[in-house]
Amino acid sequence: MIMSPEGVKRIVSAGEQLNSDFIARWAYLFKFDYRGRKTSKKAPGKAWEYTVYDRWDRPVATQDGNERKQGKWEFAKYDELNRIIITGQINIARTGEQLTADIESAVAAGTIGRYESSNDNATATVRIGYTLTKSWPATAAGTDLYTVNYFDNYSFLNASQDRLRYKQEASSDLSSPNAASTLTVGFPTIIQTRILGSNNWLIAVTYYNDKARILQTTKENQLGNVDRVTTEYDYPGKIIKTYTAHNVTASGPTHTILYRYTYYDDGSPNELFAWFNKKDGAAEILLSKKEYNELGQLVDEKLGFNPASGKYLQSIDYRYNTKGQPSCLNNRDLQDGVTTNDDLDAEPDLFGLELKYDTDLQTGSTAACYNGNIAESLWKSRRDNKLRSFAYRYDNANRIIDAKYAAYNSGWTDEKDDVGINGSASSIGRFTTSDIKYDLNGNILQMNRVGRRTISAGGLPIYGPIDQLRYNYGSAGGNQLRSVVDQAGRSDAPNDFEDVTSSGEEYTYDANGNMASDANKSLSVSYNELDLPSQVKVGATASTSFTYSATGEKFSQIHSGGSTNSQITYVNGFVYTTVPGPALSVATPTGRALYGTTPDNATRRWIQEYHIRDHLGNLRIAFRDEGQAPVQRMAATMEAVNAEKETKTFDNLNATRQFDPNHAHTGSYAARLNAGQVQRMYGPSASVQVHAGDSLHFEAYGRYDVLKKAGVWPALLPVAVAANTDAPSATRDGQAVPRRSLIPRLAAGLTLTWAAIPHLFQRPEKVPRASIKYDFYDKDSVLVASEVKYLEHDAANAWQQLVVGFKAKEDGYVVASAQNGSPKDVWLDDFTLRTTTVAMIVQENHYDPWGQNLVDIEVAGTPDCKQQYGNQERLDDDGLEWVDHGARYYDSQLGRWHVPDPADQFSSPYLAMGNNPVVHTDPDGKIIPLLVIGGAALVGGIINVAAHWGKINSSPHGFRDGLVAFGIGAAAGTLSAVTGGAAAGAVATAYGAGAAATIGGGAIIGAVGAAYGSILGGIGNTAYFQDPYSLKQMLYDTAIGAAAGGLINGAVKGVNYLKGRWAPSPLGEAPLQTASPPSDASPLSDDQIAKLENGETIFDGAVDDAGNQMNSFAGNKAGDVASSSARRVGVQLETIQDVYANPELLRGRSPSEIKDLLGDTPGWRVETLGKGSQAGRGMVIKQYLPNGNPSGKLIQWHPGGGHHGPLPYWKVKGIPNLPNSPEIF
Predict the structure, then answer these.
(1) Confidence class of residue 678 from pLDDT cuts 50, 70 and 90?
(2) Which residue in 260, 513, 795, 1124 is a FRET match for 722, CA 20 to 30 A apart?
(3) Are 913 and 920 in contact (CB under 8 A)?
(4) Where are the beta strands (DSSP E) in 723-796?
(5) Cβ atoms of 1149 and 1156 closer than 8 Å
(6) Please, which pLDDT band fits residue 722 given cuts at 50, 70 and 90?
(7) What sections of the protein cross the membrane (predicted)?
């Protein structure tokens, strides 16, 4: 039993009794059988969960509280190699003890056996490829099955499934073999997955090439067709192309996507190209290009290359502090030419973010954090150029307690609240979250928020307290939320928590601890077999229904009966939506692509939308390259034949149009302006909407005649202006725009305003005061900027080109106009107003720490991208305000989960992100990656020190040896966690997560990870402690890993996230390849198998290529690992492999000696090294690939001198997982 901290407090401080009810609310309980197998587990707030094993120590049945109410058990069936082949759920009204006895009795009597056999078996509802009666449960029918897994071959596919067979792609841009490999013994090949709530099944098939790498996957979709993904590799095995063909219906269009990857010499990802629907004439797009520093950290990601300008749409610069923590994304001031923002080859930045830890704090609202917590975040968007910030405070348990919001305007005094809880302003930032308190288990007790409280009579938002939440966990206590009181009352904020009931029990839960009802939102929630919501009813009429596969893949989300009816359909990565209109999108490594019409409505094509995300994966900016129509052009030629078209975009044309071929720049008409005549002072004008980053160009041609006398002194102009009150109105989006900021100024005294410019009064009188100008207004119609261009002497009896222009720093609109303030004729002609959109912000999102959107400083997308907080899908229908993390749904209003933690990471199963959402994220609803990897490293290090304590204790260098042992164990533990999660992710990607999501899946993935860690630890311990390493030891370590599989399972997204802290999306790099077994996998001989069964050592020493050997173990039958040599690699210098296993073998050796030993190694060349005075003195042995390119692996000898230092030394480059090449003197 593990008692939670709050439970201990209640026993000690309040004297509560340790009875069964108390334990059920506060303790984690575990039961083990006489063989040490965990048979029962109980988390606080949940019913008991049982596991039943057979006599071969395999878990064959599990049951949770909901299943027990229904008299059901989940089951797993195995093949002869103990691989899970079938999972399902069956009705059996037996206890765990009874079921264990039943299974053992049936096996002893010979009624059932150990495994099912291959067999073409057409059940009543589905055809499968195995028997069903040879192992427990022998009574399972087709309706009881969830998944069926196949290995070794493709014999299950018959003529009706020909569309799922391997297909060589016809595209000339992809190189794929004529046929897939048939050497697939031991490989997963096919998986059948049931759609929950129906008897419909989907089949996915995986094909391999002759190197045992995944070549192609074909997968049925729920709409009745097949999607196909084909992969091409380079010689070392890196993915260089993936080709996706997506079909919805047999008669509908086929959408194709070709991704092309390039790499640096060290294997780091470089460029990513995409080709969408090439058959429709689309061109290849350079989506991104990455750059790294010497430590391998991502420092620049350029997005969306524009061939026309020769620049990227954006360049995202990443910087880190000396601890390796992310510190800058661009910079908070959006300045170019500084170390945190080198954007000479890209358009100006749209977004900047800085994270502060312990130095250079800006707001004065928090203290420095020396433990890795973020003290401040500061950001700015190009849309409104407003610098904003959050200042964070934490308690002693690193839980966030305050997030003070502020905006900068000559100090951090802008955007404060307008009204406090007592009616008077309290100078709190208008989006502040504060006064968060917790119990000892981490359950939130209270939280206050500021936001939009109401709307004024003039339509302006008034900010004040919107949430003063007080959480109640029932009179007896526990981790389950029972009610919430909002002392701030209701507000106008669209995502405000609404306290609509005062009943004592506002939240109820089912036997599995899932929230079943929410009285405040009038929710009633039903869950499926995976504890995922199948239906959420809102009130009496509205509901949202979900459809999933048996592995947890979401297929549809249908909302009906509420404010809006909508449907979202998910088809193998492609998303079909119905609101605000029918739309199709697909996630890309740089954002998403939307299939729709071009801005000029000419054709339907894929439009790229790029996303800028912060360190947690939160969407901050979405921008698009409008591609074929980046320029919007409006023209006024003044010709009568164009009048109907031009009057739709320009005002005041008819009143100023003059037929006068002698005074027309082109054609026969021009605009004649004269302030002394009615309706002739103002010329053509137009209004156009612009976004941050847009460029505007306004031009016209003007002239005047010098023969006529100029007759008005500038001081008389106010009279002329006042006499012309009939000023033209501009139009914006076809609607009249009140000219409340433009015309009043002119009517009040245009000349007085212009007279402030000294040079006006220096003009000769004969030059008319005619000009073109633009006025830029922000989204609230406040004048922000203007520019005027006047006629000059050059326009006397000749045409002068007048040009004004600017680049918008925020969203708004521009009014472009022409005018003549003199009572003298001026002719203006050929007006052109052009806006150029380079990188247009189409969506902008910001969040409080718990994920609530700061709606008043956001811009909704069209359609809105819902992958926002944590890069997870937001559900906001009828005020739901949930976030779908995959394994469970998160409530951002309350800052907690409504479904228990599947990994039992914390004292409370419902607390979110470790109560530190500024630093941590939960990428899949299962596990916080930092906790898994850190814990695995610590445990691995301690275990390895304990295992070698005898040698450490007796060594004269015990302290050093202890540190080495801890390091080896920590590395092995970390690799176990990483590869276990990676294997889970690979299975999920390629095979629909069949094993990972069903019984025993965690154990299987844990075993894979532990085997990787075992090999790494074995190599390290062999090299340092001279330990013998056997396959028996690996299998022993694997068994331990299987027991811990529940912790390791699901960590893959976190691993991908940590690989690029600034680029958390796993789509940002080539897909994981860890699931592919190697090409050199070979089975054990009969003699080796006999030795293994007797516990003898099969090979003594490290393996040449640990990764390939592990793939052999994971991909083939148990024991498919064979040592290529009994010699210990790295102990004695004989081969290149020895150097890479132990570079220290080079110490003290001469270049000639190494050249003689290694110079003739196949694939390696000896070359001279050195420049200037050092030319020819150094030596390098370098590996080359079959295509003639260097692989990145080399052994160098430097003679010393110059910037290399005085001593000669050896350097080895290309050692896996070692970015800093070791130097040996």
Answers:
(1) confident
(2) 795
(3) yes
(4) 730-732, 735-737, 770-778, 783-790
(5) no
(6) very low
(7) 927-950, 962-984, 990-1012
The enclosing H or E element of 218 equals strand 214-220
The residues that bridge with 50 in the sheet, in sequence order, are 40, 63
Say whether both 766 and 814 belong to one domain: yes
Q: Is the pLDDT of residue 1121 over 60?
A: no
Residue 882 near residue 875, CB atoms below 8 Å = yes
Residue 61 and residue 999 in contact, taking contact as beta carbons nearer than 8 Å: yes
Q: Which residue has the higher pLDDT, 438 or 1090?
A: 438
Could you tell me the end-to-end alpha-carbon distance of the chain, in angstroms, rounded to an integer? 55
Q: What is the mean pLDDT of residues 1021-1040?
A: 46
Q: DSSP secondary-structure letter at 999?
A: T
Q: List CB contacts of 942: < 8 A, sequence separation 6 or more.
A: 966, 969
The SS3 of residue 1120 is: coil
Please give the mean pLDDT across all residues of the chain: 81
Are 1106 and 1168 in the same domain? no
DSSP letter at 437 equals: E
How many residues are given for the chain?
Answer: 1225
Helix, strand or coil, per DSSP, at residue 436: strand
CB neighbours of residue 707 within 10 Å: 7
The yes-or-no verdict on residue 486 having pLDDT over 90 is yes
Distance from C-alpha of 504 to C-alpha of 1214, rounded to nearest angstrom: 64
3-state secondary structure at position 890: strand
Residue 1194 sits in the same domain as residue 1092 = no
- Whether the Cβ atoms of residue 691 and residue 658 lie closer than 8 Å to each other: no
State the residue for tokens 């109640």: 472
Within a 10 A sphere around the Cβ of 818, how many other Cβ atoms? 25
Q: Which two tokens stand for residue 202?
A: 């989907």
Q: Which two tokens stand for residue 986?
A: 């690979």
AA letter at 470: R
Q: Do residues 195 and 549 touch, judged by C-beta distance below 8 A?
A: yes
Query: Bigger pLDDT: 345 or 1049?
Result: 345
- Among the candidates 836, 870, 905, a domain finishes at 836
Whether 1191 and 1081 share a structural domain:
no
Sign of the CA dihedral 976, 977, 978, 983? Answer: positive
Task: Give per-residue pLDDT as tens, 373-428.
Answer: 999 999 999 888 899 999 999 999 999 999 999 999 889 988 998 887 666 667 89
Task: Give the DSSP letter string of 58-115.
Answer: -EEEEE-HHHHHHTEEEEEEE-TTS-EEEEEEEE----HHHHHHHHHHHHHTTSS-S-
Name beta bridge partners: 165. Answer: none
Q: What one-letter code names the amino acid at 1122? A: A
Cα separation, 660 vs 689, whole angstroms: 33
Pick from 804, 808, 770, 768: nearest CA to 787: 804
Q: What's the number of domains the chain is made of?
A: 4
559-612 pLDDT, tens per residue?
A: 998 778 899 999 999 999 998 778 899 999 999 999 976 554 556 789 999 999
pLDDT of residue 338 exceeding 80, the answer is no
CA angle 1098–1101–1103, rounded 5-degree value = 90
Max CA distance (Å), the chain: 122
Task: Please state, in angstroms and rounded to a whole number, the distance separating the CA atoms of residues 688 and 776.
Answer: 10
pTM across the whole model: 0.69
Measured distance CA(899)–CA(887) in Å, rounded? 9
The number of beta carbons lying within 10 Å of the beta carbon of residue 67 is 20
Same domain, 1143 and 1063: no
**1094 and 985 belong to one structural domain:** yes
Kindly state the tokens that stand for 1179: 């030596």
The CA distance from 1097 to 1110, in Å, is 17
SS3 1064: coil
| 512 close to 518: Cβ distance less than 8 angstroms | no
pLDDT of 1134: 85
Q: Quick one: 1004 and 1141 in the same domain?
A: no
What is the Cα–Cα distance from 63 to 78, expressed in whole angstroms? 18
Better pLDDT: 338 or 28: 28
